[in-house]
Structure formats: C-alpha cells, structure tokens
Amino acid sequence: MRTIKFILQKEFRQIFRNRAILVLIIFMPIMQLIILPLAADYEVKKINLSVVDHDHSPYSRQLISKIIASGYFRLQGYHASMAEAYRLIELDDADLALEIPSGFERNLIREGEQQLLIAVNAINGTKAGLGGAYLADILLDYHHGILLEWTAPTRFEPMPIIEVLPSNRFNPLLSYRFFMVPGILAILLTMVGGFLTALNIVKEKEVGTIEQINVTPIKKHHFILGKLTPFWVLGNVVFTLGLLVSWLVYGIFPQGNILAMYAFIWVYLLVVLGFGLLISTYTETQQQAMFVMFFFMMIFILMGGLFTPLDSMPAWAKAVSGLNPVTYLVEVMRMIMLKGSGWGAILPHLGAVLGFAVIVNTWAVSNYQKIK
Questions:
Q1: Do residues 212 and 283 lie in contact, with contact meaning Cβ atoms separated by under 8 Å?
Q2: Least confident interval from 36-40, 188-192, 230-234, 271-275
Q3: 311 or 341: which carries more pLDDT confidence?
Q4: Confidence of residue 114 (pLDDT cuts 50, 70, 90)
Q5: pTM of the full predicted structure?
Q6: ABC transmembrane type-2 domain location, by residue (predicted)?
Q7: Contact call for residues 21 and 203 (beta carbons, < 8 A)
Q8: How far is CA 44 from CA 32, 90, 136, 141, 275, in A?
Q9: Facing residues of 120 across strands?
Q10: H or E stretch covering 163
C-alpha cells in the first residue's frame, strides 16, 4: 500500500505540473458536450423541393400549399418539365422533385386515385429517406382529407374508423437532445480516459524514465494500478461535470438511481483506462499509441449504438457490438437518465463490463515488461 501511495504522488504531480493539459482535460469535454448536441440534430428540415405541376388546378395548388405549410420543405421553384427538375437535382440545388400530372384533379374526382412521381436525390441517404417519407405521409394525409370531404354524412358510419393516439414514453416531446446527450457524454468519457492512459506509459518510454522505474522493486500490478488511479479520479470529475452541464444547459437529469449510474461508471472507467494502458504496453511511441487508440475508438463509437440502432445492424455486427464496452455504457446512460432504471435493470450490463475490466487489466499487467 505504501508503494502505491508513492506512485500515486508521482502521477498526480506529473498531471498537475502540466496545467495546460489539465485544463484541456476538463474544458474540452464540457465545450463538446455543450456544442455537439446542438449540431447533431436528427430532425431533417429545409428540404429543397422542386415542383412540376402539369395540372394547375385548385387541388394541385392545395396540395403544394399543404406540403410547404408542413415546415419540412422549402419550395425551390415551379418548373415546366421533369428535365428541369432533374437538372436541379444534378446540381444539388434540389433534394426532391414532385411531378403532378395533368388531369390530377379530374382523376381524383372521377376515379378516386392518382399516381404522383417523386424523384429523390439519394446522394445524402438520410436526407433522401426522411424527405421522401415526410412527403409520402403528407400526400397520404392529403388524400385522406379529400376522401373525408367527399364522404356524405350518414346516420350510421359505414365502416369503423381507427384513431391512433400516440404516447411517447420517457421522451414525450421526441427531443433528439434527450436521446443524444447521454450518448455523447458516454463517448467523451471513453475518449478522455482511453487516450490519456494510452499515452501514459509510452511517454515514460520516450523520456527514458521507464528504465528507472523498471529497476525499482515496484511490482507490476502496483505500477499499473498507480498509473490507472489518477485518471480514474479525473474520469469521475469529467463525468460529474458532464452531468451538471446536461442538467443546467439541457435540463436532463438522471431519472433513475444515481448511485447505480456512478457504480457502473466506476467499473466502466476501469475497462477503458485498462484498455488504454494495454495499448501503451504494446506501443513504443506516442504516435503509435494515438493511431492504435484511434482505430479502436472509431469502432467503439460507430458500433456502440449512439448513431445506428443495434437492431438495424447485421448479425455479425451485433455480435461484435456485444464485445464493445461503449455499447453497454450508452444503453445504461439512457436507461438511467431517461427511463429511470435502477439496479435490477443494469445488473446484466454491469456484470459484462466487470468481466471486461478483469480481462483487460489482467492482460495489461501481464503484458507490462519489467526487469526483475
């Protein structure tokens, strides 16, 4: 215990000696947590729409007005042919083109149906998919409204009408910030902890102090524990400041058991810090450690369920995500902060992360080469 105390004193002195890095460790995650949720907006608006109206009837004008009034589309202009509309799509000046054929109003009145052409600029897959879905919903709603106008009122309803009343649990207003902020906080905590520890032992190798440490009677597990503990404390500080920012800026406060969330964070930090130290034992320079950590960090983030739902991934990707600690952290953060979950709900995730912590840190200790 006395040996670990001396190692901790050395590590904390090194951290506080470089005040610029200390400020960056605290300041940068806070600024990112403030800025990123404001920019990472899942709601697609201002979709440029080009309209080709061959009918020029009251019904076609009513349809166009309904589309623009939805707030999702921005009318790029009226055009005489689809060739002009396609030209705008090729120039990226339009995201969608809607063609209303001649006889639109006549076919609706006589036959009760009419086909419309929607051309979508699919280079931006997300914007194209959502824009096309928005436009299709508006067209269906318009058609439903027309049918209601034509239906003569009768004493008895000829067929039952199903009315859907949605109830959004845990996020009543469907605010994307409530969905993104816990996930972004999880990613920032992972990046801060992972990169700092990945560079730690490598820095000792580059300046030459690792040889001095190796000839001392310090045991390997004492050395790894002394390297891990200061950043574990800093990780908890960063996480606490992140919770304060989430509460003060976005009004998001954990609805579940806060102690359970901190217990999970304590174990999770052992995983990500131990993983960084493991990389540090394999690399010889800080540049190597940065590139290796960046490689794994990209996999952790993109396959962690923050941007892409796990259920939409192929089977092999879902299997790989089960080995990704970020997957468990993002899910637990949302469960506790939004859903109000407690110990019972997070125990399976806590058990998995605890297993990762034991494996990674044992691996880091055994892989650290020390002169006996």
A1: no
A2: 36-40
A3: 341
A4: confident
A5: 0.77
A6: 128-371
A7: no
A8: 22, 20, 15, 20, 37
A9: 96
A10: none
What are the extents of the domains in the chain?
2-40+171-367, 47-150
The predicted model gives 193-221 an average pLDDT of: 79
* Contacts (Cβ under 8 Å, ≥6 apart) of 232: 266, 269, 270, 273
CATH superfamily of 47-150: abc type-2 transporter like domain (3.40.1710.10)
Structure tokens at 107: 């076919």
Q: Which residues of 250-259 are buried (b: 16+ CB within 10 A; e: fewer)?
A: bebebebbee
Q: What is the pLDDT of residue 1?
A: 67
Concatenated DSSP letters of 266-331: HHHHHHHHHHHHHHHHH-SSHHHHHHHHHHHHHHHHHTTTSSS-GGGS-HHHHHHHTT-HHHHHHH
Tokens of 99: 């063609």
Residue pLDDT, tens place only, 239-262: 999 999 999 998 888 888 999 999
Tell me 336's DSSP state: I
45-74 in b/e burial notation, b at 16+ Cβ within 10 A? Answer: eebbbbbbbebebebbeebbeebeeeebbe
Q: What's the rounded Cα separation, in Å, for the pair 46 and 131?
A: 10
* Cα-based angle 352, 30, 197 (whole degrees, multiple of 5): 50
Query: What contacts 263, CB < 8 A, 6 or more positions away?
Result: 350
